[in-house]
Amino acid sequence: HSFPTRCSSDLSSGINAEYGGPYRRCGVGKKLLDHVMKIAKDDGQYDSIFLHVQISNDEALAFYNKFGFKIMDTKQEYYKRIEPADAYVLEKSLKEEKGQNES
Q: Were both Cys, which of 27, 47, 72, 88 would link to 6 (CB 3.0–4.6 Å)?
């Protein structure tokens, strides 16, 4: 995986999270994302969190939008076994939050 980072350490080589059936809408995704964002903020070395979402996954895009993620790029043919194969690259900047917490 090639996740862009703006520091020398890497929080994760990637988390592949897909929730279906009885686990959808139970708060599992929110808890996982809250946990990852807390680790990144507490570490203090990360400016942003990046992730990939299939371009047709409107539900996931709406979910990440609620957390402040913005579409930054599109990766053509990102997925190998699903259609559409393209993915959006989403970014959540942690800079604003660092600045808000310092005042």
A: 47
The residue among 19 and 4 whose pLDDT is bigger is 19
Q: Is residue 61's pLDDT more than 70?
A: yes
Q: Does the predicted model carry a pTM greater than 0.70? A: yes
Concatenated DSSP letters for 3-70?
---SSSS-S-S-------GGGTTTTHHHHHHHHHHHHHHHH---SEEEEEEETT-HHHHHHHHHTT-E
**Contact residues for 92 (Cβ-Cβ < 8 A; gap 6+):** 37, 48, 49, 50, 64, 67, 68, 69, 70
Query: Cα 68 from chain centroid?
Result: 10
DSSP-derived 3-state class of residue 84:
coil
CB atoms within 10 A of CB 75: 14
Question: What's the pLDDT score for residue 4?
Answer: 40
